[in-house]
TrEMBL record:
<keyword id="KW-0560">Oxidoreductase</keyword>
<dbReference type="Pfam" id="PF00106">
    <property type="entry name" value="adh_short"/>
</dbReference>
<comment type="similarity">
    <text>Belongs to the short-chain dehydrogenases/reductases (SDR) family.</text>
</comment>
<dbReference type="GO" id="GO:0008202">
    <property type="term" value="P:steroid metabolic process"/>
</dbReference>
<protein>
    <submittedName>
        <fullName>Retinol dehydrogenase</fullName>
        <ecNumber>1.1.1.105</ecNumber>
    </submittedName>
</protein>
<dbReference type="GO" id="GO:0004745">
    <property type="term" value="F:all-trans-retinol dehydrogenase (NAD+) activity"/>
</dbReference>
<dbReference type="InterPro" id="IPR036291">
    <property type="entry name" value="NAD(P)-bd_dom_sf"/>
</dbReference>
<dbReference type="InterPro" id="IPR002347">
    <property type="entry name" value="SDR_fam"/>
</dbReference>
Length: 291
């Protein structure tokens, strides 16, 4: 039984693939009871087969209040004492790209609902349990949360908001024994970007003529760059190891940058004047050499 594991329980959202799945498998390997939140029944069944019962897949759409409340009740009942819930890893998220000028507002509302409000809803549901155990909250951010790339404005806006919420939460709960960390990985081998690029290409086809004339060439450069970056992306297991460190460290850092590209973007955002950052970022992303 998952609830019998001796290191306590960990909830990982968005665990059907990528970073979330890598975290679920690693925490299971290290002796934690892992509750792996997935959005569909198909993913729930697939993960159950792959892990042969050592991980507990649970249906969890983080935008659905009923799902969150059900999972919170399940974990509170199953984990018990003395170990209880050790950590919540907020990984679930979506990516949306394209020019803000033509972005349907319902798409922006959707990405903010998942990447910001959904994360906060999970925190609100599980913080009382984490406070009792002195547990950890680990949010998965992105360098896009402090350096907004062109044509990734919706995603960057959501990650900027998550970064701010993480900072505020960390300061609010510092006296309660709950510690909060933000993981900011660079390019990672994950299918979420492939899906996003396909959706953006479909969306681009519906653009009015003036939008295509204004933006299509530049967007194609960005998508070509994303394809190049995927070739050199780090495996999600590398990020999972940093998440584990944030959970197990006696003194976890507020932020963990993972990958050289994440550090490079951090330095650019912190130390370069804005006009120079604009010039460097646009010059790099819109280079014809990516096509």
């Amino acid at each position: 039984m998952v609830s019998d594991r001796m290191k306590g329980a960990v909830l990982v959202t968005g665990a059907s693939s990528g970073i979330g799945k890598a975290c679920a498998l690693l925490f299971n390997e290290k002796g934690y009871a892992v509750y792996a939140g997935v959005r569909t029944r198909e993913a729930e069944m697939r993960l159950g087969r792959e892990t042969k019962g050592s991980v507990e897949p649970i249906l969890l759409d983080i935008t659905c209040r009923d799902h969150i409340e059900r999972v919170a009740r399940l974990m509170e009942k199953s984990t018990g004492q003395p170990h209880g819930i050790r950590a919540v890893v907020n990984n679930a998220g979506i990516v949306l790209g394209g020019p803000l000028e033509y972005l349907p507002l319902q798409h922006l509302r959707r990405i903010l609902e998942v990447n910001v409000l959904g994360q906060i809803a999970i925190i609100q549901a599980f913080l009382p349990m984490l406070r009792r155990t002195g547990g950890r909250i680990v949010n998965i951010g992105s360098p896009s949360g402090f350096l907004a790339p062109p044509f990734l404005g919706p995603y960057a806006a959501s990650k900027f908001a998550l970064e701010a919420a993480t900072d505020a939460l960390r300061r609010e709960v510092d006296a309660s024994g709950v510690q909060v960390s933000l993981i900011e990985p660079g390019a990672v081998e994950t299918g979420v970007w492939d899906k996003s690029m396909k959706e953006a290409e479909l969306w681009e086809k519906s653009f009015p003529r003036e939008a295509k004339q204004r933006y299509s060439s530049r967007m194609q450069n960005v998508w070509a760059l994303m394809s190049r970056l995927r070739e050199k992306a780090m495996p999600p297991e590398k990020v999972a190891r940093v998440v584990l460190r944030a959970v197990e460290s006696g003194h976890p850092k507020p932020r963990y940058f993972v990958g050289f590209d994440a550090w490079l973007q951090c330095l650019l955002a912190r130390f370069c004047p804005v006009f120079l950052t604009d010039r460097l970022l646009n010059g790099w992303m819109f280079s014809r050499s990516w096509k």
